[in-house]
Amino acid sequence: MEDVKEYKGPEKRVYPRFQIIFPVFLRLSVIKEGNPTILELGGETVDISLEGVKLLIQEEADALSSIEDAKEGRGVDVGIEIVTEKKRIKAVGDIRWFKAESPEKVAVGIHLKGMSREDRRIWEDLVKSIALSL
Q1: Where are the alpha helices (DSSP H) in 5-82?
Q2: Which of 8, 25, 37, 22 is nearest to 93 (CA)?
Q3: Are 25 and 74 in contact (CB under 8 A)?
Q4: Structural domains of the chain, with CATH
Q5: What CA–CA distance (Å, rounded) separates 47 from 84?
Q6: What is the rounded CA–CA span in Å between residue 87 and residue 48?
Q7: What is the per-residue pLDDT across 33-71, written as a single tens digit (0 to 9) for each?
Q8: N- or C-end of the chain: fewer Cβ atoms within 10 A?
């Protein structure tokens, strides 16, 4: 697994992150040797923003190679389903980074790049309400 160096300078993100836990399902659509496979991994959010999420998922050998392929743009589509109190929000995204958090867990950073109009509205309202509650 690739070693990710943690950034130690001033914050560069456009949108602030908020620590909150939601159940999540990460779906990786993989095509290898002409055969499509969908890997579904359960986990939870660590933090969220308007445009991204950090997830914590179980480490699985097949999944790690697919996560790395997705990060490198090698033919793996990434879908995510975030289970909130109001709705299961579905999105597609890009994996920006991943690293081992423990022997059994992997942290994954995902840029959310596509949602339905309704899901986007709910997501924005959710993130804004969390920001206002702090």
Answers
A1: 61-71
A2: 25
A3: no
A4: 18-133 (2.40.10.220)
A5: 14
A6: 16
A7: 778 889 999 999 999 999 999 999 988 777 888 999 999
A8: C
